[in-house]
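Pasting two entries for a bug report.
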Amino acid sequence: MNRASVAMGGFTILELIIVIAIIAILASLILNTASYIQKKGASSRAETEIAALTVALENYKADNGDYPHGTNTNGFAAPSSNTFLLTSLMPTNGKVYFEFNKSMTNAGSNVVDPFGESYGYQYPGDANRSGTNFFDLFSRCASSDTNQWKANW
């Protein structure tokens, strides 16, 4: 056996390590991009759901003279229970203002955003943002950075 036939018989460990490193780098780039796209899609869905809930709340006010009273906000923390939104907009008896699908509610009957957190709702709204006789409705988009939140204000 000459030296040329031995060299062509397989890969060296260094070559295998380089190929594995390149594959790992490409996989991490793809996973980061997929994660970014998924978060962007969820954020867009939250924005759309807020717009639809805003219309439903306006229709509720037109029929009842006022928005549902309640608040579940706690500063920058994840909002707490908002079951009053579900019972106000989709009552068991009476006019249904919004038809919630399974992905918009959780086991505790809270209205949740695409990130799994309860939508924040406050009425009357914060006078610094919305003025009087208006509600605040928002999704934190799984971030404490208020610049990333989606809201109706």
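Entry 2 (this is the one that rendered wrong in the viewer):
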Amino acid sequence: MDPLTKDTDDLDAQLRQGRKTDRTTLLQQLRSAGGSWNWLAGAYPRLVVGSPPDLTEDEILVETSIVYVHAERRLTRCTRCPDGGGACADDATTITVGEKPTWVDRRLRMEPCPKWAEFMVRRRLEKSGVPEFFFDSSFLKFTTDADEEELGKLFSFVDVIEKRVPAWLIVSGNQGSGKTRVAVCLLRSLVKRVPRALLWYSDVTTIRNLMKQRYDDPESTGDPFENARIANVLVVDNVDPQKHVKEPWVHDRVEALLRERWLACRSTLILTHQTKEELVSAYPTITSFAETEVCNLS
């Protein structure tokens, strides 16, 4: 007999014997407890919730002891899970992260947890440079005085990107009008609808600070704007050429970034409190600004 085949057969025999022993032990526990439900209630107080009260011994014996142990551990974590999800991200059980033990048709199933989906979205936003303060932004929660026609431009922008067509959009509004939140709402939609797209959020104030940091530290290496340059979809917040024109080294860098994305046909969302005409005047090398649609949230 081939040694590998013999080893496999021996392992199968051990697994079968282990399963038989486990079933025998479980059956003894069930009968000592006075029935399946009593056993669940005593040993696994969280897992018993939602279980059929008339579970039979055979229905319990479908799973192994370790399944019930790990299901109870997962449900214990679930009780401490924040609204943003993720309590099971580092859970050392045999249950897949993002799944929750649930009784379905008299069987214990591992069902996808909606909180895990939210956790994954938030993690994508974090890796896309979005400030944590805005993680909970969504179109379902977003309120604005802007009319439906203006908001429709945002949805159209998402639809175009979903078709892999490059698009530019200017979101204009006064301070407090919700420009940043609506941009994160848009990114959240793209995370779900275009999951493979590289998304990035940049604040011009942050760009300025990064540039100053590199100037003050001559030993710094790397390109702090790499993600902003190559992202499939970029949000550029606080674009204020009237303010930054006083610092040409900031103004020129922002214009160079936008021009590079324009030439590379990469989708870009500009957040500003200025008008399109002011942007056209401030960035004359980017002729597409004259044709870019504006969503006004003022």
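Dev reply: Rendering is fixed now. As a check, the viewer should reflect this: The chain has twelve helices and seven strands.
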